[in-house]
Amino acid sequence: MKKHIPNTITCLNLISGCIATYWAFCGVWHVALMFIVIGAVFDFFDGMSARLLGVSSPIGKELDSLADCITFGFAPSAILFDFLKGGIAYLPWHYLPYAAFVMAAFSALRLAKFNLDERQAMGFIGLPTPANALFWAALIVGQGENLAASQILYYAVFLGLFVSSFLLVSEIPMFALKFKTWGWKGNEVKYIFLVTCLPFLLLLGISGLAAIIAWYVFLSVYTHIQQKK
Fold this sequence. Notes:
The chain has helices at residues 5-25, 29-53, 58-86, 102-116, 129-148, 151-169, 188-204, 207-228, and strands spanning 123-125, 173-175. With 229 residues, it is mainly alpha-helical. The termini are far apart.
């Protein structure tokens, strides 16, 4: 019985992503964001439960990636598509909002690379798909009206989806919140990140979640540059 628990949790992640996608296409972005967050919670606990129960399996690994493709690839792309479709008057060609699904394709590619890349035990190479999904969902929910009201900001969002697609498959090392020890030394960036998350949320609300992901990318890139010197 216990061997089915992790896969059941993974399926709940996938179902959350399906529900999020539905509400994204309906234009109810805040509900879509809520189900992406719920999916992220399930995504966290499926791997943890598999390790605790000692029932990790190849099929679980593949199922996890399939679920993540929906929840953290297709669902945020659907939110972005619905947002871009709403500002279609800004665009010279009406089919350009479909470019949002480029991000879904790059999310799938990132997940496939992650399954084969043995360098990502204690960190990530490229932007993790849950972080990318939470960034876009929170940004559109929190600032969608303001972004749509400005043609320049609208185009910035359009270009931003290609930047994030690049980050997904880039070779930029990004830290993970995994600790070998709890001391300050060696964990400075992680502790700084954790301490600064709460002020972002308190000051910016839902938009603070997008700010946190942007801050995470900045810290990762800055740390990588410093380590190369």
